[in-house]
Amino acid sequence: MTEPIAELAAGYDRSAAFPTESLRIAHEAGLLTATIGRRYGGREAGVEESARILHALGRADPSVALITAMTLATHARQAADPHWPEELYARVVKESFERPVLVNHARVEPDLGSPARGGLPATRARPTADGWEISGTKRFVTGAEGLDWFLVWASTDEPEPRVGTFLVPGDSPGIEITGRWDQLGLRASGSHEVTFQAVEVPHEHVIGIGPYGPAAEQDNRAGAALHLPLAALYLGVARAAQAFFHTFAHARVPANLGHPVARTERFRRTAGEIEVLLTAAEQLVFDGCAKLDAGDTSYTPEQALGARVLADRHGVRAVELAVRLLGNPGLDRGNPLERHFRDIQCAPVHAPQEDISLLAVGTKALNP
Fold first, then answer.
1. Which of 71, 91, 196, 317 is the most buried (most CB within 10 A)?
2. Pairing of strands 124-127, 149-156
3. 216 with 163: CB under 8 angstroms?
4. Per residue in 44-68, pLDDT tens?
5. Half-sphere exposure in the Cβ direction for 57 (13 Å, CA)
């Protein structure tokens, strides 16, 4: 299944077009619906299976993997803790089994930045006779142009503001992409800036609304079920880079050497370092996922955060080693390694970023 997605990846990277065909392939393989709960007729894939799905997709096309990750995480959370209006979610599930249905949160804002660092959203929900009107701008909304549902984090326009998540259909009037995603990596992820202008939402399409305060802020320690699969996604990118590195090493036969560079100590030593980095990172990530699935209470949120920090570091380092050893060919846009190098730079960007994660780990270490 991942082979045709990998074949399409370079073209989507060049054009930055939304990867519709690749997502169709993923849907037909049952990947977009893997985490739908059993009570809704799904398989209810666990954290480890989600991580392995994203690892495989990350190796093929990380833009497709990231869009998939957001939908999988939404279904997984609903399976673990039902919080959507039941009738609405049943409709979403029915459609999801019939066609690719994409869902993602819209939380980051131009002024606020990531909610991982706290703060009240500037996006406002104004009460109306039938529900709410949502107005505001969100950034880095992965999959924006293909989303069927935006989960918009907003504060209410009331004397005492409340915060909540407003379930907004992707085809609602008043939604506009106001800033195109034009980044170094994951160019086909469609992580655009989206503006909501008086978008109408009925009363019953709101979840988790309540007073703003510490309880309403993002809990960076509670997201292990997403952090670890995201780490696996980027390790998939690193494995793709490693695969090209190996292919190059066996194919490259300098005239003055007379045999493939794969036989030189320099290449073998670097190949060994890359393999050690990635194997160790994968063991940390997948072992952590398995412990989460097993309900192992000895596995702490801080351990999950630490595993993601190390996995991201190892993945980035592994691809850097491959690029440095290949030299100019490693940065040639005709080779996939150049694309993998760009994509892997996105790994440490996801919230909570390294400094926030290390703060949580260090606080726990100093106060066990």
1. 71
2. parallel
3. yes
4. 999 999 999 999 999 999 999 999 9
5. 31
